[in-house]
Amino acid sequence: MKRTMRQRFMAAALAGVLAASVAGCGSSDGGDTKVSDVRTYDVEKYVTLGAYDGMDVTVEGKFDVTDEDVATYIDNMLTYYPTYEDTDKKTVESGDCVNIDYEGKKDGVAFDGGTAQGYVLEIGSNTFIDGFEDGLIGVNVGDTVDLDLTFPEDYQSEDLAGAAVVFTVKVNKIVKKLNTTYEELTNDFVASNLNYDTVDALYNETKSYLEKSNEENRTVAERSAVLDKLIENSTVAIPDGLLDQKVDQYIQQFTAQNCTGDTTLADYLTSNYNMSEDDFKTTITNEMQSNLDDELVLEALAKAEGETLDEQGFADYIASAMQSGGYKTEEELYAAYDSDYQDGKSYLEHRYLLTTALTNLVDKCNITYTGVDATAAE
């Protein structure tokens, strides 16, 4: 199974701690043995690289941006910016879009977030709490009604959860939702609704965004395919004890982050993912094994190619990591990646060398693109 198709469970449930666990975060509680105890090895004893210069690699993906792509993206965007026209309809029915003013009160006092003017609500969309939309069916334009309602017990606001409230609602008018498409756009429309001066300005910025996004996706797809091919051509063995240490450390971190109070790991996994501890450990083990295969083969490649740390390149790498991670200082970033490579800076230097080795290898490969969007088959 290709690394690009790893289980979504890992991406969704464990993204918050995966980076630290792969780094072997030394701050984890539970156990005195560190991963660094099994980190001393000669990578050439565990990895035999196959021929890698000029590898033929196929990349699944569609990375060119066409006029159709731009139009489709804008059409999708327009669904989030609906426009409406007034109608002569007088009585609210299910499915209508109604322009309303409303004020919600609990114990006679208006509560935060419960008041709006000129809000357009589609009756039957279940946007509001039970009874609100049904309570407007049959109301005439211009009329005001009081709706005696109760918030759900599990409502996100503790102050309103399970609370009895009264919404006073005035129906201003019944409107028709317009499904505007890219082909129908005018300069006046985009200026009034989308903050662009012209349709061409909207098109050009959208195309630029898609081109940048596709180029980033191309880079990721190329690196993934080249790394898969490199591993396919090589033999990799994981040093004794390293995989077990990584898995144990990850589980310790995951437990500390998610299992508070009396909640056990088994309880958390069952309630959130319907997964047993054994299944969880199997998932982590498979993921860690793939990560270590990647790391070891790239370590061997970096050593074979004599990769060295470029100070300016590393500084740019750190700046990018700080921006994407929201870190204010380098020290804060390094602390987040404190690891079995002595410290966070050493770990990130190591990752930078591996990234550099992979990037340089991509440049040496003969890459063929399928022209098929790889996500379409998922």
Q: What level of helicity do the residues show?
A: 40-55%
Shape: extended
Q: Any low-confidence stretches, pLDDT <50, length ≥5?
A: 1-38, 374-378
Mean pLDDT: 86
How many helices? 11
N to C succession of SSEs:
HHEEHEEEEEHHEHHHHHHE
Structural class by SSE content: alpha+beta
User: What's the story with the biggest beta sheet?
Assistant: 5 strands, antiparallel
Q: Beta fraction of the residues?
A: 15-25%
Estimated radius of gyration: 28 Å
N/C terminus separation: 13 Å
Number of strands: 9
Description:
44% of the residues lie in helices and 16% in strands. It is an alpha+beta fold and 378 residues long. The strands form 3 sheets. Strands 3, 4, 5, 6 and 7 form a 5-stranded antiparallel sheet that branches. Strand 4 (97-106) and strand 5 (109-122) form a beta hairpin. Helix 5 (199-233) crosses helix 11 (344-364) and helix 6 crosses helix 8 (277-304). The chain is extended and about 80 Å long. The model is unreliable at 1-38 and 374-378 (pLDDT under 50).
Descriptors:
single chain; alpha+beta; 5-stranded antiparallel beta sheet; two-stranded antiparallel sheet; disordered N terminus; disordered C terminus
Write the layout of secondary structure elements.
Elements: H1 8-13, H2 15-23, E1 47-48, E2 56-59, H3 67-78, E3 83-86, E4 97-106, E5 109-122, E6 144-150, E7 164-178, H4 187-193, H5 199-233, E8 235-236, H6 242-258, H7 265-273, H8 277-304, H9 311-325, H10 330-336, H11 344-364, E9 366-369
Parallel strand pairs: 2-9
Antiparallel strand pairs: 1-8, 3-7, 4-5, 4-7, 6-7
Helix pairs in contact: 2-6, 3-5, 5-11, 6-8, 8-11
